[in-house]
Write the structure tokens for this entry.
Amino acid sequence: MKIKVINPNTTPEMTKDIYTSAHCFSRPDTEILCVNPERGPVTIEGFYDEYMAIPGLIEELLKTEKEAKVDAYVVACFGDPGLYALRELTEKPVIGIAESAMMLATFVAGKFSIVTIMPRIRMMLEELIQRVGVGHRLASIRTPNLTVLDFMRDFEGCKKILIQEAKDTIEKDYAEAIILGCAGMAGFATEVQKEVNVPVFDAVASAVKIAEALVDMGVKTSKVLSYKFPEKKEFKGMPSLLQP
Amino acid sequence: MKIKVINPNTTPEMTKDIYTSAHCFSRPDTEILCVNPERGPVTIEGFYDEYMAIPGLIEELLKTEKEAKVDAYVVACFGDPGLYALRELTEKPVIGIAESAMMLATFVAGKFSIVTIMPRIRMMLEELIQRVGVGHRLASIRTPNLTVLDFMRDFEGCKKILIQEAKDTIEKDYAEAIILGCAGMAGFATEVQKEVNVPVFDAVASAVKIAEALVDMGVKTSKVLSYKFPEKKEFKGMPSLLQP
Amino acid sequence: MKIKVINPNTTPEMTKDIYTSAHCFSRPDTEILCVNPERGPVTIEGFYDEYMAIPGLIEELLKTEKEAKVDAYVVACFGDPGLYALRELTEKPVIGIAESAMMLATFVAGKFSIVTIMPRIRMMLEELIQRVGVGHRLASIRTPNLTVLDFMRDFEGCKKILIQEAKDTIEKDYAEAIILGCAGMAGFATEVQKEVNVPVFDAVASAVKIAEALVDMGVKTSKVLSYKFPEKKEFKGMPSLLQP
Amino acid sequence: MKIKVINPNTTPEMTKDIYTSAHCFSRPDTEILCVNPERGPVTIEGFYDEYMAIPGLIEELLKTEKEAKVDAYVVACFGDPGLYALRELTEKPVIGIAESAMMLATFVAGKFSIVTIMPRIRMMLEELIQRVGVGHRLASIRTPNLTVLDFMRDFEGCKKILIQEAKDTIEKDYAEAIILGCAGMAGFATEVQKEVNVPVFDAVASAVKIAEALVDMGVKTSKVLSYKFPEKKEFKGMPSLLQP
Amino acid sequence: MKIKVINPNTTPEMTKDIYTSAHCFSRPDTEILCVNPERGPVTIEGFYDEYMAIPGLIEELLKTEKEAKVDAYVVACFGDPGLYALRELTEKPVIGIAESAMMLATFVAGKFSIVTIMPRIRMMLEELIQRVGVGHRLASIRTPNLTVLDFMRDFEGCKKILIQEAKDTIEKDYAEAIILGCAGMAGFATEVQKEVNVPVFDAVASAVKIAEALVDMGVKTSKVLSYKFPEKKEFKGMPSLLQP
Amino acid sequence: MKIKVINPNTTPEMTKDIYTSAHCFSRPDTEILCVNPERGPVTIEGFYDEYMAIPGLIEELLKTEKEAKVDAYVVACFGDPGLYALRELTEKPVIGIAESAMMLATFVAGKFSIVTIMPRIRMMLEELIQRVGVGHRLASIRTPNLTVLDFMRDFEGCKKILIQEAKDTIEKDYAEAIILGCAGMAGFATEVQKEVNVPVFDAVASAVKIAEALVDMGVKTSKVLSYKFPEKKEFKGMPSLLQP
């Protein structure tokens, strides 16, 4: 099967790390295509960034719908941006990395903590957790004030910080699992896992596994109500690439 | 004071009706600027439409931030699209019409019903209601399968349908107030109000009144956490107009 | 328009401060009538006080319904006492200061904190927050153990304490807005606002603005179900003034 | 032990029925005192009635606190009026009939329905159910549009209606227990029970049993925070009987 | 009346203490039968222990159903194990000690804390609290890392720890009542009560009082849906004693 | 990898169907072991049945832990019986079929309905849905009054009923996906899928896919708190096979 993983920001180094993570945890017969749009923010660290990334994300999905044959899509940003819109545009499963990691964590742990980037995204994550429905399983959100690009620039420094936050949340917040809450942390799960005695979830890997599961089961996105194809209409002044 | 009302779709007839509604309910010393972006979908009837409208919406706000002097913004689409992003981009209050109407309804009625357009937006509204926090005050969501443009094309026909739905929900769902859940319904509230004995809320008017209230109080959007100005960063391949 | 603000306790100095706050934030063409009942507790600092204040409050409203012409009522106590009963007695909007401040705060901040008086009212506020529906937006309730009359007696001392609590809750509880949770704090918002970088809400002002909004929109209290006029019946041994 | 049951309305016939119900289900060594205030509404059928009944209710409790020796209080109105205020005024348990019936029903049934009086009290009951916490156990609220005095005037007619509603809710709403939601229905439980195959709860009886339980256990109302004795203060123009 | 209290573990010393507690708080004309199964874990300190105790518990109930005449059952373990299954097997009320203590606490206190054994049962209690519906009344769960058998072995040591935890939770968590959250703590409530100024609930006593209440009221377990008698079927390789 | 699927009832024909379903949707390199205990109820249709099945289920797991080498366990009953206890007994993931199907459904549909067996299990499913956290995504629970063995006895008859219920819930309840809520329905998903235009979830298949996902990711059950290995202790009169 083919899964297209879209990094919605425009930082190719990060796309590469996401590819490694996705590929590393995928099944041998799964082909991972990993791309990022040509236009949009270099990182996503707030609501504005998120919405600015969505057109590029949609473009990437529509391009694939028209040209290539893939079986599912993964959106590789921990805010799960634009998910519902993408689901309208295709019958293939579209999977978010945050929703996937949170749901998988509940199968092996009572409560989980999310270790993520800067404090400003706390509200974005809290609303996401409510939408997913796992608020009763959340131990805490830890925001050690890292930026997304820090992970590209200082692997060792970030690793230390993530390990420290993970240890703290296990000890102080009754956390029983750790979710690394940023696609830029792809590759860190293995490192953090070595240092702590609870399961550590790579969110990109989580979404790839959910995508594989749904494709294997043959289920597609329901098109009868919430995720119907968009109504036909005119889009003024917009690149045709952005239109289904 | 000056309030800029942005219709996030690209249908000027609708912008005109929204202006009428906003102007009609505003205070004499409030100046209403009412615009729509040049690019984007002609109507918003789903998640894809919503996200496609947000760049134009942001452009309109940023243009104003740089050029004109306004005191608050109103986003005139009942899905409250892009609200959090806009709040990051300015210190001035940014108000959604759905959140405004729902909150104002709770001051004069036990339960309210939303009469809106087609069934596919039900999930969008349910998630919005949860975010606002008034789920316990909702009697029902009524979706008489109208499109946004129907309101432009057939005033009398739509009026009849809205009145019938309003009467039905009062009688069968214990509704004590009606919210007209689409910016395209601007102008219908007065008509429906004549036929039913419960308060009927025009959502655009509701948001204008909330905007006036906040401006009068001198409060601005909090910039310490969730709505901080966006992080400085590169946006590849994007019009400079879209960047704060 | 005319708004009658009723301070439900019997301390005229406080009524005066409430008037100043209401008047100061009202529109030029809004006339504020501000009164307190002749009978009832001098302050409201618990459930018993609250219920003992309600008959006087109802008397004040009914007196106005029979004699004067006003457009809306504001109940100026942060417990929002007797609101539902008052709504049964009139078609005019009846607005609570707590519900108003909490709702307005959500338009400009992710999470808000309430800085109020003594710890014993914590449960009263928690139940009120649930009724309003904004529990997911509450950062914390701060109870610095002040009494209502402290605000009349020691402006400077109280000001210092409120500023300190506001600063603490911003720093420690992720608060992004402050609500001053007592009608006795009318007048302090401006002072606290000078010292902190988040919006500070005067609750009396908030309710006046909501009242103005609803009157401008022409909506009235729904009389079809929850807030129908009281059933006709005998009230034994009660002053006729208390009967609708 | 002695339990004082206070009917908060001023209809002595109803007080008599409440006494019969309380006495009939109490233990042989429990003495039931059953009274109603001299002043207040003859029935409670809305928020205004409720608040107008509370001063008389408080008077009755305070009179007893000063004169007689009782072990617990029961407030015999299904809106549980003034409960928190009464708890502030005494160390003895103060028990509501609605909260008692709802909690006891959960021990013997998956879901329960409340059969009560007129539709207008629906919101009052919904808020009460949320405060008690048993919303997930509620099958439905049935409001056959009876007034409280109907139960005094037409026993047979009311009996038929209650039985019909009970049967309907078992069959259509998955109800597994019935709560008769009005103190005026004291005496009807036995009759309804004969006709339906699910447990039927008399609310007055439920509260008497909870009161007996708490007195036997020797627990008293906690006075450290929410239910502390009222703060000492002046109450202007109020009968001394109303002051603790 | 006769109440059978079943200690679901196999430690007779604990059964004795449970009996003392049940007997001590029961009415003079209530006969307490207190037993434990012959097979099963010596204590219940986790999910596995709980499920392993349920067959013995069911055996004890069925033995009684066939032989002796009792009026109600109490399950004396704070996890309320197997309650729903037992309710299917008999028409007599089956009462859990955790649900009883939590509900009774809400009648006399704003918020309560549970002082229990080891941290691992935290999730078990949190899910139980959600099922009962009193999450909004919980101040905290305190887990001082005691085992169930500690209470048999070191009364004085445990007493000190429980008193310390109770004092801490009153001071730091706004607790207004204490529930001793383990049947092994039967007998400690009186001791803790002497040292703290809030009501302390013995959970076994709480359940006995609820059982007495329901029996006095003549209500039985509803057999129309959730708690119908089990479907007739074959149970392979299981002792006939375990089959209804 | 090897996944052991345990049918917790003792009907080998059903075990065979479960095997077929598990095998059919598993990856080529996944080996499915499918067994049922030798003792326990022939079907699970209520709480008593559920608890009676758990010892056999535990025995099956412990036998495997001691003898064979598997990578994960699936419990194939839609009540997800004994899951938490099993998680205490092993480090390998233990997956329930109900939780798996509900979570996977949320990735491709706004709301899902569960079509299951008889009405009496409604409460069991409602509590399960709350524990999983997806109550806001539930359209309805449909209980066409089938028994588990009906699926073994009358394939065509059951198929018709399931298809009719699925069509009804799509049309009337806004369902966008169907979950077949009984392990006995293994094999029916494909048939129902042919007749309806929304995704249909086989619950056994769902759990196998989640198990594969977690094994591929290398995560194990967290052993630090809720799912620690059971405390060492004596189990009186119990087969050693049942002890870890």
In short: Chain B has a mean pLDDT of 96. The CA atoms of residues 233 and 241 of chain B lie 15 Å apart.
